[in-house]
């Protein structure tokens, strides 16, 4: 039989248990409040007002643990793509250095050849001067000696001071100088040749590694096509969500893309469908940095050839992701250092970019991969947006003519070269409409002021 009278300690324990159950039950939660799991999603990056000082690139967006993007296949593909890009950049950098060293070796070889010829000539003149000195000293008529001097080293006698005439001293000095020049040229050639051979060995090893990674990545994708398609769809959705906060109109802080930046975009878009090929820079095949290099070369600006070098050369004009304009270069990195940059693309507006993605793909328009965004830079400064003249706006007429119909305000016709002949009398060059872009982006020309001179 249960004792109807509970001791105070038992009552206290029972009351505590009831309170704990009540607070733990979802039925007792406030329906007007969203439960906080204790973890908030990290923002993809700070929102900086247009024109404000750029901030440090944020880390990649956090991906939910259950996402395909954090699964083993996506992780493996991403790691191989980053490694492949890193090896490819290293190989391309060494190939560029090799070309320079080979040119230096060729020049050194030519100088060495010329130095050998100069030394032979100096020795011939020294011997002739010594012979003349001997003839003068012996007071012999010309042609009466020869056999008497057989085997005699005239240069040795000159060096001992047996033949002191000034002509022989000058000839001896010329020989010494020619010998020094010949030795210097020989050392320069051998040093350049050794360096060239070392680079060739390193390039061969990197080339083998790059080709192996390409084959492994191709096989990995071919064996997982369905899952890869699902991963790409999820990546697209994630980037669209992240990018929605960064999209802007054609004008940022009253400024638009420079005409030359628009021309660079036009060049890149003309390459749509061209196949990706490592180290290619046109005219009908490109890699990622090769497309950027060719696009800006078409408007007279020379970028470095490798993606991370392109960032380093233009880092003086970093652009916040919320203030991008067509023509800006977008860089992607595997960590927080610019040295880990592995890909570059060109912004075209509307959250889209044109890129040469990877082996087996083609030049195409893609959604900006905000989840891997590292930084963006601008080559040519933005210019003031063209102002609409009051006279150019359509004005209602009290009695419109029946033979005419209202028409929109005329848009300025683009200048063939993308720039006006006179300041103040400008004709903006429109950006071509591409899928996903927010229509044509008008620009107004200004002085060419690239952010940095890259060589």
Q: What do you see in this structure?
A:
The protein has 455 residues and is an alpha+beta fold. It has helices spanning 8-24, 72-138, 154-160, 166-223, 225-243, 259-270, 288-297, 307-314; strands at 255-256, 318-319, 329-333, 341-349, 352-355, 364-367, 373-377, 383-384. It has a 6-stranded antiparallel β-sheet with strand order 2-7-3-4-5-6. A two-stranded antiparallel ribbon has the order 1-8. The radius of gyration is 37 Å and the shape is elongated.
Roughly how many Å apart are the termini? 96 Å
Strand content: 5-15%
Number of strands: 8
Low-confidence stretches: 1-15, 17-53, 144-152, 390-455
Roughly how much helix do the residues carry, as a percent range? 40-55%
Integer-rounded radius of gyration:
37 Å
Q: Outline the biggest β-sheet.
A: 6 strands, antiparallel
Mean pLDDT: 73
Short note summarizing the structure:
This protein is α+β, with helices and mostly antiparallel strands.
Keyphrases for this structure?
two-stranded antiparallel sheet, 455 residues, 44% helix, alpha+beta
Layout of secondary structure:
Elements: H1 8-24, H2 72-138, H3 154-160, H4 166-223, H5 225-243, E1 255-256, H6 259-270, H7 288-297, H8 307-314, E2 318-319, E3 329-333, E4 341-349, E5 352-355, E6 364-367, E7 373-377, E8 383-384
Antiparallel strand pairs: 1-8, 2-7, 3-4, 3-7, 4-5, 5-6
């Amino acid at each position: 039989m249960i004792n109807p009278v509970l001791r105070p300690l038992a009552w206290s324990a029972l009351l505590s248990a009831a309170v704990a159950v009540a607070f733990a039950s979802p039925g007792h939660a406030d329906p007007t409040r969203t439960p906080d799991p204790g973890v908030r999603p990290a923002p993809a990056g700070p929102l900086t007002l247009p024109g404000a000082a750029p901030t440090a690139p944020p880390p990649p967006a956090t991906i939910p643990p259950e996402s395909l993007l954090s699964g083993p296949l996506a992780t493996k593909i991403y790691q191989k793509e980053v490694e492949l890009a890193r090896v490819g950049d290293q190989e391309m950098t060494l190939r560029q250095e090799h070309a320079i060293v080979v040119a230096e070796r060729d020049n050194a070889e030519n100088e060495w050849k010329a130095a050998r010829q100069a030394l032979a000539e100096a020795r011939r003149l020294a011997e002739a001067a010594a012979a003349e000195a001997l003839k003068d000293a012996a007071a012999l008529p010309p042609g009466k000696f020869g056999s008497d001097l057989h085997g005699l080293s005239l240069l040795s006698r000159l060096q001992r001071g047996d033949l002191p005439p000034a002509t022989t001293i000058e000839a001896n000095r010329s020989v010494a100088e020619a010998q020094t020049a010949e030795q210097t040229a020989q050392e320069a050639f051998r040093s350049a040749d050794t360096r060239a051979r070392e680079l060739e060995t390193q390039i061969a090893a990197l080339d083998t590694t790059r080709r192996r990674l390409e084959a492994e990545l191709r096989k990995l994708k071919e064996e997982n096509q369905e899952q890869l398609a699902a991963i790409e769809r999820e990546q697209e959705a994630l980037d669209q969500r992240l990018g929605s906060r960064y999209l802007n109109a054609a004008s940022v802080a009253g400024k638009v893309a420079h005409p030359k930046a628009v021309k660079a975009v036009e060049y890149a878009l003309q390459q749509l469908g061209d196949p990706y090929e490592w180290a290619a820079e046109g005219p009908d095949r490109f890699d990622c940095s090769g497309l950027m290099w060719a696009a800006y070369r078409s408007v007279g600006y020379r970028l470095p050839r490798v993606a991370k070098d392109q960032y380093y050369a233009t880092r003086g004009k970093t652009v916040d992701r919320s203030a991008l304009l067509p023509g800006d270069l977008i860089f992607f990195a595997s960590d927080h250092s610019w040295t880990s940059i592995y890909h570059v693309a060109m912004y075209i507006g509307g959250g889209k970019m044109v890129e040469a993605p990877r082996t087996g793909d083609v030049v195409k328009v893609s959604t900006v991969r905000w989840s891997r965004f590292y930084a963006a830079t601008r080559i040519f400064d933005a210019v003031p947006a063209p102002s609409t003249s009051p006279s150019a706006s359509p004005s209602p007429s009290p009695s419109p003519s029946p033979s005419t119909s209202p028409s929109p305000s005329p848009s300025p016709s683009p200048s063939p070269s993308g720039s006006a002949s006179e300041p103040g009398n400008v004709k903006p060059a429109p950006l071509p409409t591409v899928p996903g872009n927010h229509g044509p982006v008008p620009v107004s020309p200004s002085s060419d002021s690239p952010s940095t001179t890259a060589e």
